[in-house]
């Protein structure tokens, strides 16, 4: 089975840049056997969804509201997102760090995403967080988990393979059937290490911003 490769552009690209990246790369990415998913910011989702309509590529939102449609200024709800995306990131470590999101937020957001048929990518910094999430009653069927050690995100210091393997085993013992991804300073030089360890795919930040660099990652998956 192919791997899942998610390009997380965070708050880095303008609408125009998002559209250029997709137009320049779309046909090449379609040749891949892997499931490729792009995660632009909210305002670029409509153009991304429209440019990728009818292709094998997926679109992911970087966040989802824990609320239903209603008076929540600034929020974007799952019921509306589902018109544009297939996946949503939940509690990425930057959401935990700058927006005080935690495992109980994750429980609510994952539930909301699943209710509207979206695939949540639950981001955790280790197996303890996943355990806490499950202890709080978090749904586990139909989710993807991304293991992203905080010291590896955006630092150019990917996780030691032995440690990544250890955490992967711990995560697997908690969640048998669901896909588990690795994220944190993934490049074309190291991606095969994490795939070979048994991760079902990768979440790529910095190295996904440049389309050529991202294509090199795909060649190495
Ligand atoms: P990075 O980001 O690849 O720049 O380390 C990964 C992520 O935050 O998802």
Mean pLDDT: 96
How many runs of DSSP E, i.e. beta strands?
8
Give the ligands present. Answer: 2-phosphoglycolic acid
Indicate the overall shape.
Answer: globular
Largest sheet: 8 strands, parallel, barrel
Q: Uncertain runs with pLDDT below 50, 5 residues or more? A: none
Derived from helix and strand composition plus strand pairing, the structural class reads alpha/beta
Strands ordered across the widest β-sheet: 1-2-3-4-5-6-7-8
The topology string of helices and strands comes to: EHEHEHEHHEHEHEHEH
The portion of residues assigned to helices is 25-40%
- The radius of gyration over CA amounts to 16 Å
The N- and C-terminal alpha carbons lie at a distance of 12 Å
Oligomeric grouping of the chains: single chain
Descriptive report:
The chain is α/β, with parallel strands linked by helices and 221 residues long. The chain has nine helices and eight strands. The protein has helices spanning 15-30, 45-52, 78-81, 93-99, 103-115, 127-135, 161-174, 191-197, 211-220, and strands at residues 4-8, 35-39, 58-61, 87-90, 119-124, 144-147, 179-183, 201-204. Strands 1-2-3-4-5-6-7-8 form an eight-stranded parallel β-barrel, surrounded by five helices. α1 runs parallel beside α2 and α5 (103-115) packs across α6 (127-135). It binds 2-phosphoglycolic acid. 2-phosphoglycolic acid binds next to β8.
């Amino acid at each position: 089975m192919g791997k899942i490769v998610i390009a997380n552009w965070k708050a880095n690209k303008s609408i125009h840049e998002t559209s250029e990246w997709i137009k320049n790369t779309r046909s090449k990415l379609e040749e891949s056997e892997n499931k490729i998913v792009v995660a632009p910011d909210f305002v670029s989702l409509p153009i991304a969804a429209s440019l990728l309509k009818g292709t094998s590529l997926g679109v992911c939102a970087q966040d989802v509201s824990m609320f239903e449609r209603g008076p929540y200024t600034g929020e974007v709800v799952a019921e509306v997102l589902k018109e544009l995306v297939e996946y949503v990131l939940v509690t990425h470590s930057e959401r935990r760090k700058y927006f005080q999101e935690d495992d109980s937020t994750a429980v609510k957001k994952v539930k909301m995403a699943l209710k509207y048929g979206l695939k949540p990518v639950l981001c955790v910094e280790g197996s303890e967080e996943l355990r806490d999430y499950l202890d709080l009653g978090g749904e586990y069927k139909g989710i993807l988990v991304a293991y992203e050690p905080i010291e590896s995100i955006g630092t150019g210091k990917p996780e030691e393979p032995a440690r990544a393997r250890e955490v992967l085993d711990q995560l697997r013992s908690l969640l048998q059937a669901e896909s588990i991804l690795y994220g944190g300073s993934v490049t074309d030089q190291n991606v095969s290490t994490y795939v070979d360890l048994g991760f079902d795919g990768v979440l790529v930040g910095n190295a996904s911003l440049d389309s050529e660099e991202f294509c090199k990652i795909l060649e190495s998956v």
